[in-house]
Design brief:
About 25% of the residues lie in helices and about 15% in strands. It is an alpha/beta fold and about 525 residues long. The chain has 2 domains: about 260 residues, FAD/NAD(P)-binding domain; about 150 residues, Cholesterol Oxidase, domain 2, CATH 3.30.410. Strands 5-12-13-14-11-17 form a 6-stranded antiparallel beta sheet. A 5-stranded parallel beta sheet has the order 6-2-1-10-18, with helices on one face. Strand 7 and strand 8 form a beta hairpin. It is globular and about 70 Å long. About 50% of the residues are buried. Its cofactor is FAD. Belongs to the GMC oxidoreductase family. GO terms for molecular function: flavin adenine dinucleotide binding; oxidoreductase activity, acting on CH-OH group of donors. This is Glucose-methanol-choline (GMC) oxidoreductase:NAD binding site.
């Protein structure tokens, strides 16, 4: 009996209830504006977290914990026709809370150099914003999430205040890595995490389940439903299972007038004074391309021809193996130690940024070992002792410089359950990024050799895959011919259409993007508030 009809006299319509949409909705609703949020996926009951996590940790299960996406459903169909296949549904989310329903929760600020990539290396482009422009919004985002961290990273950009919560202690395996890194002259430091090291704003402190991804049973890990609830408390209306099909605009093609959305009860039009697209790096450009019209035959807000272009993700590099000592793997389910020592790029642009991660969850859990074979009794116990508790792994996120040829476009040969073309993700791995992955593997092998580890696996250029950080498809810039949105994140073509999220990133760095998404969303909300 959920009412999914439009809200009359809305000031703002937000499309997407992930971290970007939730933060924008809360900030504007708290300022007294009438806000409606439309999300394509369902709501998930927080009371179901323990049951969802119990299902998720069973060996062989693939995303049974509720992302609102079914890889076999017509609604969630996609194609990938680029040189490198992109497994979109492996981590795509459609649900209130967005990608934070299953994220790891690491939240780093971009480095100052990330905003000046072209100036410093000749690669890519510069952002039209500087680190200084976002610095106060980074701090606000950390307070919103409740970030636990420490100021011990010598490579991090300058801060204005301490983190809201104290950092988590290093894991036991971090101490093993620390000795090896010290021997090789590699500096290590703590990781800012969007999870509570102590109770924060009515949410529990971390209970130490060690099963943080996808679902934190206690709710100590932040997810965007926190700000969805706050937005609703402030008067916003959030409508789930409301898949926006297209945006309509006025006769002059200067302003969006309505979002047309489909629900289980039929199709509706939500009108508003301002519109915010916060549907992620794939669905945001797809919706703009689906909203073609006589004025915009190539898609809404696409006079530059760049909607969907420069699709970018982080590549993963990793090396792991076994050591002749106990590592207590999986006692902690999230990263507590990183190294940004290899982050800055050489001035000749020969490689891109590397962020090293030390995995305290390498290798199988006891349940993985116990349930993946046929052994019983003492034989089973021997298997667990042999395969669990002695494994280590070093990972890395590797930056990819945005490429024009990589894109999200419409596949008109295949349609979803509403008859609309599905997204086609075109992705590739360039030579510079390959060299960077090789360099990351070289560093990782060196650390494991210091531990006398027997290397069991390596993920290098031939096996690498995405981190599922969808970025760059509606990039920001000053020049309307080379960007989709301006420095206020408002589209160049339509004066009342703002885009929030990682799709506006001109470049990506090698940092997990969610904190920057949040900072930009709060920045955009402030600009919107000034216009309303």
């Amino acid at each position: 009996m959920t009412d999914r009809t439009p809200r009359a006299d809305a000031d703002v319509c937000v499309v997407g209830a992930g971290p970007a949409g939730a933060l924008v909705a809360h900030r504007l609703a708290a300022a007294g504006h009438d806000v409606v949020v439309l999300d394509a996926g369902p709501r998930f009951d927080p009371a179901d977290r323990p049951a969802r996590e119990e299902t998720a940790i069973r060996p062989g299960e693939t995303a049974p914990w509720g992302t609102g996406v079914d890889e076999h459903a017509e609604r969630d169909a996609f194609t990938s026709t680029g040189p490198k296949s992109y497994p979109l549904n492996d981590a795509r989310v459609k649900g209130v809370g967005g990608s934070t329903l299953h994220w790891q929760g690491m939240v780093m600020r971009l480095h100052e150099s990330d905003f000046r990539l072209h100036t410093e290396t000749g690669l890519g482009t510069d952002w039209p914003l500087s680190y200084a422009d976002l610095r106060s919004h980074y701090a606000a985002a950390e307070r919103a999430f409740g970030v636990a961290g420490a100021s011990d990273n010598p490579f991090a950009p300058p801060r204005e205040t301490p983190f809201p919560l104290p950092a988590f202690e290093p894991s036991y395996s971090d101490s093993i890595f620390a000795e090896a890194c010290e021997a090789r002259g590699i500096a290590t430091h703590s990781v800012p995490n969007a999870r509570n090291s102590e109770s924060y704003q009515g949410r529990s402190e971390c209970q130490g389940y060690g099963t943080c991804k996808p679902v934190c049973p206690s709710g100590a890990k932040y997810d965007a439903t926190v700000h969805v609830s706050k937005a609703e408390d402030a008067g916003a209306r959030v409508i789930d299972r409301a898949a926006v099909q297209r945006l309509e605009h006025d006769d002059a093609g200067e302003r969006v007038t309505a979002a047309v959305y489909a629900t289980p009860d039929g199709e509706f039009r939500q009108e508003a004074d301002e519109f915010v697209l916060a549907a992620g790096g794939v669905e945001t450009p797809r919706l703009l391309l689906l909203s073609e019209s006589p004025q915009y035959p190539d898609g809404l807000a696409n006079t530059s021809g760049l909607v969907g272009r420069y699709f970018t993700d982080h590549f993963y590099a990793g090396v792991g193996g076994v050591v002749d000592e106990r590592t207590r793997q999986h006692h902690v389910g999230f990263n507590t130690t990183n190294s940004h020592q290899f982050y800055e790029r050489p001035s000749d642009g020969s490689r891109t940024a590397i962020k090293l991660e030390f995995h305290n969850y390498a290798g199988p859990t006891p349940a993985d070992v116990a349930l993946s074979g046929d052994a019983l009794g003492d034989d089973l116990l021997d298997d667990v002792r042999r395969e669990y508790g002695n494994q280590v792994g070093v990972g890395a996120l590797v930056e990819q410089v945005p490429q024009y040829e990589n894109r999200v476009r419409l596949d008109r040969s295949k349609t979803d359950d509403h008859g609309s073309p599905v997204p086609d993700v075109v992705w590739s791995l360039d030579d510079r990024t390959k060299r960077t992955i090789e360099r990351a593997n070289e560093i990782q092998r060196g650390i494991l050799s210091e531990l006398d580890a027997e290397i069991r696996w390596e993920i290098g250029p031939e096996k690498t895959g995405p981190a599922f950080h969808h970025m760059g498809t509606t990039r920001m810039g000053v020049d309307p011919s080379t960007s989709v949105v301006d420095p206020e994140l408002r589209t160049h073509d339509l004066s009342n259409l703002t885009i929030a999220g990682s799709s506006v990133f001109p470049t990506t760095g090698a940092m997990n993007p969610t904190l920057t998404i949040a900072a930009l969303s709060l920045y955009a909300a402030d600009r919107l508030r000034e216009r309303l």
